[in-house]
């Protein structure tokens, strides 16, 4: 996991190199100092010129030359190691940072820097076990080492060791004050999924409970709770869990509707199902609850009532799926298709008005009219007509 950009380390290295050159110039004595500093300054500005011209490899070679003149400069060596890693020379970065870790006389702050850099080298090379050891040592050295803790969380996620991921997420929250509840809830849900797959119902329920403790509005925990209760034959409890999900985040309504309606059917509570769907139609602009309610109207009141209800709803929320359902109901009813054709024409016009006719093929910006310059990404000539808008 790389948190620091390549350019950050380039420009961190520039002032370090300049200071190193000044120090070396002074060590050379008064008689030679002007010449030494002048030569190093020339090298420094040549390196800067390479960076500005996007030639980082040549720049690094020059900075290596400067660093060789003062090998005791800790910050220069750390920065060079980061640059090696960014260039893909991970083995070289590891050797450099290993030497720094073993250097005697380091302050605690410097040892933290060196260990952190070495751990990141190991992660880049895929040596997660070594990275885990280094970051664990780093946390033991400095309990408020948030970057090391974040790396450990990433390692345990990759290894699917959810208990350790949770432990280190809590330590990270304690060290930084940054809320980690949503992430911890996801880890608890992973544990719940594992227990559910193994048939360990009580352990799965306990993991879901902990997920709610970490994030009271966890959608995933609610969906899991509903599935666990369905597996256990507890339809009433499953209904409560699924409805909670829908009220917390209506975007997940299409995910929970099929199992929720199946629960309602098994308990024989059609009025409860219709009331819930009516509530969702008020808060969710998608077509899923409308189609579900249309099927219930058809079962209770017949095809004609269902077709009339759906046609009315589609005037406010046009939908291709809704159009298909309306056509099916019209064919099933055997009614005069002329009225349905008028309804379909109105729905189609609404869809055409709402959909973009042009889209930027660089950033995806949608527009109703053509622009030569994209209003979003500011690129020229990237907005083109959509295929479904083209006449030919």
Automatic annotation (TrEMBL):
Residues 26-392 are cytoplasmic. The chain crosses the membrane at residues 6-24. Its main location: membrane. InterPro entries: LapB (IPR030865), Rubredoxin_2 (IPR041166), TPR-like_helical_dom_sf (IPR011990), TPR_rpt (IPR019734). The keyword Cytoplasm does not apply. Residues 358-385 form the LapB rubredoxin metal binding domain. Keywords: Cell inner membrane, Cell membrane, Iron, Membrane, Metal-binding, Repeat, TPR repeat, Transmembrane, Transmembrane helix. Modulates cellular lipopolysaccharide (LPS) levels by regulating LpxC, which is involved in lipid A biosynthesis. May act by modulating the proteolytic activity of FtsH towards LpxC. May also coordinate assembly of proteins involved in LPS synthesis at the plasma membrane. This is Lipopolysaccharide assembly protein B. It comes from Lysobacter niastensis.
